[in-house]
């Protein structure tokens, strides 16, 4: 999967960081040390890590991902990353 979203709440900029959904690449999630959780009331799962976004972005860069864009949505920071396919 060449695209990925990373997000965190502004007040939680030191972590945890949301790094994927239930369809994310398991190899990438394993590399990040992410855990899959389902919040009560949601019908979908998300992957989270305790690392702050900066460390997550650094790790993803070593895997070949590059930040395409970043934005703030309400109290949430969101980064969109892309990895070139071979």
Automatic annotation (TrEMBL):
<dbReference type="GO" id="GO:0044549">
    <property type="term" value="F:GTP cyclohydrolase binding"/>
</dbReference>
<dbReference type="Pfam" id="PF06399">
    <property type="entry name" value="GFRP"/>
</dbReference>
<dbReference type="GO" id="GO:0031965">
    <property type="term" value="C:nuclear membrane"/>
</dbReference>
<dbReference type="GO" id="GO:0009890">
    <property type="term" value="P:negative regulation of biosynthetic process"/>
</dbReference>
<dbReference type="InterPro" id="IPR036717">
    <property type="entry name" value="GFRP_sf"/>
</dbReference>
<dbReference type="InterPro" id="IPR009112">
    <property type="entry name" value="GTP_CycHdrlase_I_reg"/>
</dbReference>
<comment type="similarity">
    <text>Belongs to the GFRP family.</text>
</comment>
<dbReference type="GO" id="GO:0005829">
    <property type="term" value="C:cytosol"/>
</dbReference>
<keyword id="KW-0963">Cytoplasm</keyword>
<keyword id="KW-0472">Membrane</keyword>
<protein>
    <recommendedName>
        <fullName>GTP cyclohydrolase 1 feedback regulatory protein</fullName>
    </recommendedName>
</protein>
<keyword id="KW-0539">Nucleus</keyword>
